[in-house]
């Protein structure tokens, strides 16, 4: 048996057998062991550079990652053999040994950011999609955005008089001239980042986990923004803004005034996502900047869930985030403190959430406090173990999954139709039997 042999004694057949036990595809086993004659000694001698060139570069992403992790595991268990072969160097550091530094310059595997799909006890990590939770998080963010739109209507009607309360002193706004088209450019930048994020979601294998986290974090930040907008109304940041409270003929002087009118105006804001390029103009919603929240959240999610070797994409994402913030300030639509607080809160909440989700031991050790202060996290991340790896589906796999989803939906519809038809027939038969019994009874009475 190959388990009882030293790795150096493995033949190509032994290696093929072990790879099959590690859940490698038959095509990958044939490619490695039969076409390229991979044996135990070759397996131990593989390094990071080998995974970036042919023939290993021709392997599918899943099998390439599995092979990389399997090699590192074997090298970790055979340190003495590697030393005898003269192959023991920094490239053979195990991914599983937490007492060693992770290798950070590999262009193939993001070992500093992505946990292996197999845990230390040899069991696969649980990364269930949990589509119901993703749907609930979507409902949560829709509900929060509706509350935000309604609060924006309220604060618009409470905006301070521009003649009585002039713009506050601001280091940036006082030294940078007003650029009229800058705010539209900020929203164009955010739209471009959102498009990139949709593409990442489309191809990522764990897209439902990503969606759940994006909706949960976005909803939480915007819910906090509702509070800060409502409790304190800052003066209008620029004289170019035409902001004044709206007077309703049916207003009763209360905080909510004419509720029906406010709801209709909130719907206009919600439908246009609060964007000026959609024809939405609001005032008073300054502390803190919602546009900065959106830009920063998209930037952090794009850089977190794309491989680190796509550095040009990360650089572009950060540049668009910073330029978007500059455009907000150049348009004099927000104070500098609005933008700074928005960036700080969004980035800290993102890092806090992912620090807990990437280190389940922290949550287990202090689960009570986590449930109290962040109940959404405790619910949404209860089924996730470890870091979500950046693995992607091919277009063919996406099409196949979509077709299977449609087939599953059609089967459910047919079953539902059959069930309804069966119940309808049963009810009809009961009515006919009841009518028949009544008719027979009446005939007997007549006789």
UniProtKB/TrEMBL annotation:
One Gene Ontology cellular component annotation held by this UniProt entry: plasma membrane
Asked if Transmembrane helix is a keyword of the record, the answer is yes
Q: Which residues form a coiled coil?
A: none
Domain of life of the source: Eukaryota
Q: Does the keyword Membrane apply?
A: yes
Gene3D superfamilies according to UniProt? Transcription Factor, Ets-1 (1.10.150.50)
Instruction: Tell me the ranges covered by the Sphingomyelin synthase-like domain, including all copies.
Output: 282-355
Which Pfam families does this chain map to?
Answer: PAP2_C (PF14360)
Q: How does it sit in the membrane?
A: Multi-pass membrane protein
Question: What would be an example GO MF term here?
Answer: sphingomyelin synthase activity
Q: What is its main location?
A: membrane
What subcellular compartments does it reside in? Membrane
Name the Gene Ontology biological process terms.
ceramide biosynthetic process
UniProt keyword list: Lipid metabolism, Membrane, Sphingolipid metabolism, Transferase, Transmembrane, Transmembrane helix
Where are its TM segments located? 134-155, 181-203, 215-236, 286-302, 309-329, 335-353
Which family does the record claim for this protein?
A: Belongs to the sphingomyelin synthase family.
Q: What is this protein called?
A: Sphingomyelin synthase-like domain-containing protein
């Amino acid at each position: 048996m190959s388990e009882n042999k030293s790795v150096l004694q493995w033949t190509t057949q032994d290696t093929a057998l072990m790879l099959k036990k590690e859940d490698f595809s038959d095509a990958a086993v044939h490619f490695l062991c039969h076409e390229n004659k991979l044996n135990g000694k070759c397996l131990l001698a593989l390094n990071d550079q080998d995974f970036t060139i042919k023939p290993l570069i021709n392997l599918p992403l899943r099998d390439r990652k599995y092979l990389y992790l399997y090699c590192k595991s074997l090298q970790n268990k055979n340190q003495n053999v590697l030393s005898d072969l003269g192959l023991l160097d920094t490239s053979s550091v195990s991914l599983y040994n937490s007492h060693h530094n992770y290798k950070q310059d590999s262009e193939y595997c993001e070992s500093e950011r992505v946990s292996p799909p197999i845990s230390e006890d040899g069991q696969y990590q649980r990364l269930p999609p949990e589509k119901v939770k993703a749907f609930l998080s979507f409902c949560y963010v829709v509900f929060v955005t509706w509350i935000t739109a309604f609060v924006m209507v309220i604060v618009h009607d409470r905006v301070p008089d521009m003649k009585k309360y002039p713009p506050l002193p601001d280091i940036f706004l006082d030294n940078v001239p007003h650029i009229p088209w800058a705010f539209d450019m900020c929203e164009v930048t955010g739209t471009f980042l959102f498009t990139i994020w949709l593409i990442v979601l489309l191809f990522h294998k764990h897209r439902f986990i990503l969606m759940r986290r994006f909706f949960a974090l976005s909803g939480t930040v915007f819910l906090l923004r509702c509070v800060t907008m409502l409790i304190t109304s800052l003066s209008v940041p620029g004289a170019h803004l035409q902001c004044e409270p709206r007077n309703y003929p049916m207003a009763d002087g209360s905080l909510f005034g004419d509720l029906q009118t406010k709801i209709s105006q909130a719907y206009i804001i919600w439908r246009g996502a609060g964007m000026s390029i959609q024809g939405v103009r609001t005032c008073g919603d300054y502390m803190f900047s919602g546009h900065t929240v959106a830009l920063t959240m998209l930037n952090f999610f794009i850089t977190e869930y794309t491989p680190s070797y796509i550095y040009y994409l990360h650089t572009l994402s950060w540049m668009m985030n910073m330029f978007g913030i500059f455009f907000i300030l150049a348009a004099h639509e927000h104070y500098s403190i609005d933008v700074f607080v928005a960036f700080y809160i969004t980035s800290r909440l993102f890092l806090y959430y992912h620090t807990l989700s990437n280190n389940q031991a922290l949550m287990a050790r202090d689960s009570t406090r986590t449930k109290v202060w962040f109940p959404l996290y405790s619910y949404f991340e209860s089924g996730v173990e470890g870091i979500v790896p950046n693995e992607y589906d091919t277009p063919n796999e996406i099409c196949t999954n979509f077709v299977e989803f449609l087939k599953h939906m059609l089967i459910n519809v047919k079953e539902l139709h059959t069930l309804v038809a069966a119940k309808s027939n049963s009810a009809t038969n009961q009515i006919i039997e009841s009518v028949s019994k009544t008719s027979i009874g009446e005939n007997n009475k007549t006789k």
